[in-house]
């Protein structure tokens, strides 16, 4: 941006100052510095011919006092009425004679008064590089008019001033003062002139000459500067000697206290002088070679101490200090080793081994030191496989003995076992039929019944063994009273399930504009715990991001770390989505991925829920996995229907595959393994 403020420096001195020195004549050119000056003259029909001649002479008189040249003052003239005419631009004439000739050849337009249009023209077309405008040179416009503008001038004049054009408004006779002030640059007393007739317009010319040329006010006025006065065209300002700063009055000077201002880098003491400082140190310290920082006097270096280990200098003296692992005795000089084991200041579980100020831990025979280097764990040769027992290994710290599973007896070698017919030799307790296996047995049930969790009794299921995650809509459209019905709906579903750590596990996720796991699958193991937790769930409100909820369920809810049982155990994973409105995000991707991941999806909708979205979420067949009702009060009926679909049908010939890895003993491991083999064999035979 051009340094337009230079124009203000070139045009500063008031008319009162102009009378204090001789006026510049044709032989006394203004040397104030380069200026790009454009005259904007009103040639409307209200300007009479003799008045226009006076205005022509007015411009020539001003130019005669200026230092005209391509490297000094450049001048352009634009004539306006209802039209515009560029008489000559800033680059047209390099000499005064040529400018005077151009002004004398101007023919008035004699039409209306479109002053705003004229200001817009000089801003866009006169003060541009193509027409001779120079960067870093002040732009000055002098507008001469005798009437009220017929268009709006305030906005375009403000834009011109914003671009750095300094505007002088000269009104003659019928000119409107408000319009002149709207055009001119502030302060108005320096830039607005109103004269009664064109014959008096030369008065502005004299003042304008003074503003361009100025005088050395430091030499010709009582400037009042305490130290130094520096002149600028038409003005002056005061300066101070080094080490001083100018006060708010702009004239007097105050010593710069760098210490008080914090503009120093002394470590201890700052000693100030005008604009400078020196550093010093507190008692007991000496100034370093950098003349800024301080070092404490080292009394230990004097060699008059008798410390057993180490001498430490302190302010105005010294004291003794012991090496790590030792403590200073009462004489303040000698050191003694610290035995933390003897003092009981350790946390070793079994054996403490001491060194000065430290200790290490060890364990008794038959034990091994844990990673915490403190506690001990019995060496379990059974768990480490460092035994030769055929069936059961019984561990003691560092040793073991062998035993046999139920139905077997230990041989004389104290390692191997001999099988017994378990169904004939033990009280097996099978309700229907006992099947002996190698060293064990298992119970089976008649067709149409399932073996219960006790492994002995038979019956129909209350609910399947499942991992169930419920996704409930907590958006603001549900409303608080309906959200309470939703929680009751969830608890009705829970009532239909056989909840336990080894049976059905339940997790709950609430979603709106975000997703929150209320509790994972492994948090609660009874129906009562789950129902109590459901009733404490806080309503989220906000939006309906069902797609985001499906993504959260797929990526988080069925992780083993969240309580889902390994997929190898073939325990069904079921997701139940409850919503009352259209999803605000896309559900297609994660509804599909959930079903591809083997999750059986149920979709329950109420009120404004979208049927197409519900069907897209639901697994096949949809009539079994898709539910909808118009009223929240009817969702209890859906909960009743869900009971039928969560339980597997009893006549499908399905078998229960037991997970041997979930057994708590080797007997149970073998029972589960043989049970799986037996059921698979029976199925193939059938």
UniProtKB/TrEMBL annotation:
MF annotations from Gene Ontology: calcium ion binding
SUPFAM superfamilies, per database record: Chicken cartilage matrix protein (SSF58002), EGF/Laminin (SSF57196), Growth factor receptor domain (SSF57184), vWA-like (SSF53300)
One Pfam family linked to the record: VWA
UniProt domain VWFA: residue ranges: 36-212, 467-642
Keyword Calcium: no
UniProt keyword Repeat, yes or no: yes
Secretion signal, residue range per the UniProt entry: 1-20
GO CC terms in record: extracellular region
This protein's name: VWFA domain-containing protein
Compartment(s) of residence: Secreted
UniProt keywords, alphabetically: Coiled coil, Disulfide bond, EGF-like domain, Glycoprotein, Repeat, Secreted, Signal
């Amino acid at each position: 941006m051009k340094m337009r403020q230079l124009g203000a420096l070139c045009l500063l001195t008031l008319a009162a100052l102009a009378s204090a020195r001789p006026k510049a004549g044709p032989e006394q050119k203004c040397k104030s510095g380069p200026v790009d000056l454009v005259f904007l003259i009103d040639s409307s029909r209200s300007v009479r011919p003799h008045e226009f001649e006076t205005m022509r002479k007015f411009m020539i008189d001003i130019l005669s006092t200026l230092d005209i040249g391509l490297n000094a003052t450049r001048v352009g003239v634009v004539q306006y009425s209802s039209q515009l005419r560029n008489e000559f631009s800033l680059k047209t004439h390099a000499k005064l004679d040529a400018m005077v000739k151009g002004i004398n050849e101007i023919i008035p337009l004699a039409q209306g008064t479109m002053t705003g249009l004229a200001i817009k023209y000089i801003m866009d077309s006169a003060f541009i590089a193509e027409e001779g405008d120079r960067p870093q040179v002040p732009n000055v416009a002098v507008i001469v008019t005798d009437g009220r503008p017929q268009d709006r001038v305030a906005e375009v004049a403000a834009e011109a001033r914003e671009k750095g054009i300094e505007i002088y408004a000269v009104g003659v006779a019928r000119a409107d003062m408000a319009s002149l002030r709207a055009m001119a640059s502030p302060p108005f007393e320096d830039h607005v002139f109103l004269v009664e007739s064109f014959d008096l317009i030369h008065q502005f010319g004299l003042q304008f000459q003074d503003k361009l040329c100025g005088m050395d006010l430091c030499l010709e006025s009582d400037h009042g500067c305490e130290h130094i006065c520096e002149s600028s065209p038409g003005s002056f300002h005061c300066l101070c000697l080094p080490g001083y700063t100018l006060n708010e009055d702009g004239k007097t000077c105050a010593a710069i206290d760098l210490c008080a201002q914090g503009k120093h880098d002394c470590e201890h003491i700052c000693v100030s002088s005008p604009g400078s400082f020196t550093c010093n140190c507190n008692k007991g310290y000496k100034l370093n070679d950098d003349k800024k920082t301080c070092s404490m006097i080292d009394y230990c270096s004097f060699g008059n101490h008798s410390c057993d280990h180490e001498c430490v200098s302190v302010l105005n003296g010294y004291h003794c200090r012991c090496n790590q692992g030792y403590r200073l005795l009462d004489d303040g000089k000698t050191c003694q080793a610290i035995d933390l084991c003897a003092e009981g200041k350790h946390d070793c579980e079994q054996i403490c081994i001491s060194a000065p100020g430290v200790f290490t831990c060890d364990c008794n025979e038959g034990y091994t030191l844990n990673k915490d280097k403190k506690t001990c764990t019995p060496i379990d040769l059974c768990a480490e496989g460092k035994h030769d027992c055929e069936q059961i290994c019984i561990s003691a710290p560092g040793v073991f003995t062998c035993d046999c599973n139920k139905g077997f007896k230990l041989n004389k070698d104290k390692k191997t076992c001999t099988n017994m017919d378990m169904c004939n030799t033990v009280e097996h307790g099978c309700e229907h039929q006992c099947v002996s296996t190698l060293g064990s047995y298992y119970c089976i049930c008649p067709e149409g019944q399932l073996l219960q969790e006790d492994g002995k009794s038979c019956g129909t299921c209350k609910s399947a063994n499942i991992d169930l995650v419920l996704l409930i809509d907590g958006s603001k459209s549900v409303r608080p009273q309906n959200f309470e019905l939703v929680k009751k709906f969830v608890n009705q579903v829970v009532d239909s399930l056989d909840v336990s750590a080894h049976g059905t596990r339940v997790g709950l996720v609430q979603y709106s504009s975000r997703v929150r796991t209320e509790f994972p699958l492994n948090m609660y193991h009874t129906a009562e715990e789950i129902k109590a937790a459901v009733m404490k769930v806080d309503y989220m409100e906000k939006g309906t991001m069902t797609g985001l909820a499906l993504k959260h369920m797929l990526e988080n809810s069925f992780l083993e770390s969240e309580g889902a049982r390994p997929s190898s155990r073939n325990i069904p994973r079921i997701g139940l989505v409850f919503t009352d409105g259209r999803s605000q995000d896309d559900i297609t991707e994660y509804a599909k991925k959930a079903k591809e991941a083997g999750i059986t999806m149920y979709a329950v909708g109420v009120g404004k829920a979208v049927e197409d979205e519900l069907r897209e979420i639901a697994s096949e067949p949809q009539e079994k996995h898709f539910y909808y009702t118009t009223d929240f009060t009817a969702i209890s009926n859906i909960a009743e229907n869900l009971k039928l679909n969560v339980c597997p049908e009893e006549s499908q010939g399905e078998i229960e595959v037991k997970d041997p890895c979930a057994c708590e003993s080797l007997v149970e491991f073998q029972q589960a393994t043989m049970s799986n083999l037996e059921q698979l064999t029976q199925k193939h035979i059938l």
